[in-house]
Design a protein that fits this description.
By secondary structure, the chain is an alpha/beta fold. The chain has 2 domains: about 230 residues, 3-Layer(aba) Sandwich (Aspartate Aminotransferase, domain 2), CATH 3.40.640.10; about 120 residues, Aspartate Aminotransferase, domain 1 (Alpha-Beta Complex), CATH 3.90.1150. About 40% of the residues lie in helices and about 15% in strands. The strands form 4 sheets. A 7-stranded mixed beta sheet has the order 1-9-8-5-4-2-3, sandwiched between helices. The structure holds pyridoxal-5'-phosphate.
Length: about 375
């Protein structure tokens, strides 16, 4: 039995008519860059997240970068985040001109350990970027308390957490800004590149809207230096269609995770993911931990089961960072050597999950 890591085609087949009609509508109206289809999606996504504003941008990296710029974070400033994230979190900090400062993760949720944050706050610290890794929110209450106490901004990297919740609040809605990616493989994926910032702060909303569109207040009147980071009309239309299905797809992922957890619990040497207190995990990635990860991936590939690694090298050890002065982050480093991401998507069948679990059992 072949099990791909992700099957975007299977998802498309279930909504083909709606999607094709939505794309045709954009083509017929030629509203390709920004415009009414993006505005419609922005309204719907803000409502979905329970916030006042959503700003559609080019991708998740833009969302993070423009949030930092709009909050006035730049040269000489420090931003606290975690080393086990996708590089974009840190690229955004560095391209804003600021310096990333890392804290280790919690071994159960794989998100920022709030107990470590105050140790690294200095007079230069301006913001904290918790990452809702794999679709599970970071422990936001203590992070927000620390930010309040020290006068810091909080930008949520919710790029993997569309519809995830913390104490009933949607990921992205708790900090000053929440950043989303709609990269095709994300739980809410566009048909190309797209992203969004969500916020309750109307000043921030206005600033990011200007920054994404060359700093214009109206056409050809440029009040600040901006950039081109607009969302495409086709992406807005596709995302409006897909948003209606997101909760159902997230629930299917949660059921798949539950079945995996049950079947894998009997296997020695495999640590299954845990949903921490107060959190609703939406399993963008279903990552288990095991020693001998690389051999296991090869074995599964021979059985036609395709896995991933998120991420093999923590950001502070990436060549691009060009710094060797970090103290080790033992949990992030250990996890990066043990993580293996099993196939996970809404259309994954019970039979496929049973097959994968049986193959894993035969290996151990
Ligand atoms: C996908 C992702 C991003 C970047 O989003 P792009 O749309 O690919 O630019 C940032 N942070 C995390 C945690 C991500 O998973």
């Amino acid at each position: 039995m072949k099990v791909p890591f992700l099957d975007l085609k299977a998802q498309y087949e279930t909504i083909k008519e709606e999607i094709d009609a939505a794309i045709q509508e954009v083509v017929d109206s030629c509203a390709f860059a920004g415009g009414p289809f993006v505005e419609k999606f922005e309204k719907e996504y803000a409502e979905f997240c329970g916030v006042d504003h959503a700003i559609g941008v080019g991708n998740g990296t833009d969302a993070l970068w423009l949030s930092l710029l709009a909050l006035g974070i730049g040269r000489g400033d420090e931003v606290i985040t975690v080393p086990n994230t996708f590089i974009a979190t840190v690229e955004a900090i560095i391209f804003a001109g600021a310096t990333p400062v890392f804290v280790d993760i919690d071994e159960n949720s794989y998100t920022m350990n709030p107990d470590l944050v105050e140790n690294v706050i200095t007079s230069k610290t301006k913001a904290i970027i918790p990452v809702h890794l794999f679709g599970q929110p970071a422990d936001m209450d203590p992070i927000m308390d620390i930010a309040k106490k020290h006068g810091l901004f909080v930008i949520e990297d919710a790029c993997q957490a569309h519809g995830a919740e913390y104490k009933g609040k949607k990921a992205g809605s708790m900090g000053d800004a929440g950043c989303f990616s709609f990269y095709p493989g994300k739980n809410l994926g566009a048909f190309g590149e797209a992203g969004a910032v969500v916020t309750n702060n109307s000043d921030l909303n206005n600033k990011i809207k200007m920054l994404r569109d060359h700093g214009q207040s109206k056409k050809y009147y440029h009040d600040v230096m901006g950039w081109n980071a607009r969302m495409d009309g086709i992406q807005g239309a596709v995302l409006s269609v897909k948003l209606k299905h997101l909760e159902k797809w997230n629930e299917a992922r949660r059921r798949n995770a539950e079945l995996y957890n049950e079947l894998l619990s009997e296997i020695n040497g495999i640590i299954t993911p845990k949903e921490a207190d107060y959190r609703k995990h939406i399993y963008h990635i279903y990552a288990v931990r095991t020693p001998n990860r690389d051999a296991l991936i090869d074995f599964l590939k021979e059985q036609d089961i395709y896995c991933g690694i998120h991420y093999p090298v923590p950001v502070h050890l990436q060549k691009a960072i060009q710094r060797k002065d970090f103290t080790p982050f033992s949990i992030a480093e250990k996890c990066s050597q043990e993580f293996i991401s099993l196939p996970m998507f809404a259309e994954l069948t019970k039979d496929q999950i049973k097959y994968i679990s049986n193959r894993l059992k035969s290996y151990s």
